[in-house]
Amino acid sequence: MIPSKASAQDYHSENLCTWCDGCGNYGIHSAIKRALIELGLKPYQVLLCFDVGCHGNMSDKLLGYRFHGLHGRVISLASGAALANPDVPVIALSGDGGCFSEGIGHLVHAMRSNYNMTFILHNNSNYGLTTGQASALTPRGEQMNTSPLGTVEDPLNSMDFIFSLNPTFVARGFSGNIRQLTDIIKAAVNHQGFSYVDILQGCPTYNKFATHEYLLGKCYDVKDANHDTSDFNQARKIATDTSEKISTGVLYQAKGIPHFLERLEARKGVETRLVDEVSEINMEDYFKKFM
User: Fold this and answer.
1) Superfamily classification of domain 23-288
2) Which of 53, 74, 138, 215 has the fewest Cβ atoms within 10 angstroms?
3) Is 92:81 a contact under the CB 8 Å cutoff?
4) Residue among 138, 151, 158, 89 at smallest CA distance from 118
């Protein structure tokens, strides 16, 4: 891929953002655009795949190749696109509801297969678009719209779960730190393999327990702690321990691990892309047999 000059105007959309005032999606929206611009990618050089949720309203708030799919199914869609045309960077985005409930199976197998793509989790610990139901990441006891007396289930420890899948790239960011988030997304896109990026964001309307102010005071950059991103055990430890502070930045990266296409013996020495090997076939005669 040969980087070309890109500008904010390339990604500008006339559609107005409609998120609630103070929503973390504004910061994530800015960071994604800045990352793509700094990577030298123009809108026609990247594919952005959106799940259903508040984050999905970003699909018409910036220009480019975008696909707005079904709830919980964005990773399967994006992984197929990444396999079909590895020359186009693929970024999939989902909320914690769609990812860790309906879509958790797709997350498991995409990471296990190490598809060459970036996945961004918009983590606000609730189903925001459908008015504040508890998700699999909502802390126990929190009063949400469909659990006014408090949730009764323990949340998934998402980071411990992710590290149990033997990832090759794990990062965590905060929607209020756009500069750091931009650098994280750039590193994720440049990584060869499946990149998992957890973005903590405030939901000012429904999430009253992990507010923007709370996250602002809780998060720290692992660069300031001289963290070794190649140390799996240390990365897992600081990722899962959020009792005092929350680590952000690139937490773990294993370089040189073959991604899915590179592991396939049948693709060794093949220079064409899968998308080049698909041809149109006239099915008219075939269908006539059943008419």
Assistant:
1) Thiamin diphosphate (ThDP)-binding fold, Pyr/PP domains (3.40.50.970)
2) 215
3) no
4) 89
